[in-house]
Amino acid sequence: MPQMAPISWLLLFIIFSITFILFCSINYYSYMPNSPKSNELKNINLNSMNWKW
Fold it and tell me: pLDDT by residue (tens digit) across 17-43?
């Protein structure tokens, strides 16, 4: 029964909210996609104009 144990519920809510936000932000910003290099982009653009029909 929570009435018998006066726990600071607001403090617990703030702590859990901060940890949840930190966890989500770490997961979001930890993924770094590989960006293509400029030489690869030039090759892709040249090869894409070679139509086979």
Answer: 999 999 999 998 887 777 656 555 555
Cβ-based neighbours of 9, under 8 Å, separated by 6 or more: 2
Burial 13-50 (b: 16+ CB within 10 A, else e): eeeeeeeeeeeeeeeeeeeeeeeeeeeeeeeeeeeeee
The residue behind tokens 């104009």 is 49
| Cα distances (angstroms) measured from residue 32 to each of 11, 29, 40 | 34, 7, 19
